[in-house]
Amino acid sequence: MAQTLDIPVRLSISGVVRPNAEVEVRLLLGHIMETGFRHDSSGAPVTKDILQFVKVHMGDALIFEAELGTGMAANPMFFFSFTLPPQAGDMVVSWTDHQGRTGQMSRPLLYR
User: Fold this and answer.
1) 3-class secondary structure for the chain?
2) Which residues lie closer than 8 Å to 1 by C-beta, 6 or more apart?
3) Contact 75, 13 (CB under 8 A)
4) How sure is the predictor about 48, in pLDDT bands with cuts at 50, 70 and 90?
5) Architecture field, domain 9-38+46-109
6) Which residues contact 65 (CB under 8 A, 6 or more apart)?
7) pTM metric for this prediction
């Protein structure tokens, strides 16, 4: 059974939220993204802890996907644009870390 990974997520949309409008999405994931290459003050290695996959869906459509690695900074932030579908719905952000833990958050988009 997969474990859940709850992290703070900030999702904002720039632009007019209406059918077929192009908007910019800003997504901030609150995660430490520890590479496993560092050592703490006692010399012990710091355990690797990174997000590996991030996906954003609008309804059934995949609108953003990223495969992350050890080169990604803590609290990764993404910007992307897309055209809103004709029908309002939920925007769902999901993530998976390198240990297979998963999480997601959902935000309803209501058209004006």
Assistant:
1) CCCECCCCEEEEEECCCCCCCEEEEEEEECCCCECCCCECCCCCECCCECEEEEEEEECCEEEEEEECCCCCCCCCEEEEEEECCCCCEEEEEEEEECCCCEEEEEEEECCC
2) none
3) no
4) very high
5) Sandwich (2.60)
6) 53, 54, 55, 56
7) 0.91
Confidence of residue 112 (pLDDT cuts 50, 70, 90): confident
Q: How is the chain split into domains, by residue range?
A: 9-38+46-109
C-alpha span between 23 and 82 (Å, rounded): 6
- How far apart, in whole angstroms, are the C-alpha atoms of residue 105 and residue 107? 7
Q: Span 1-17, mean pLDDT? A: 90
Asked if residue 16 lies in contact with residue 108, where contact means CB atoms within 8 angstroms, the answer is no
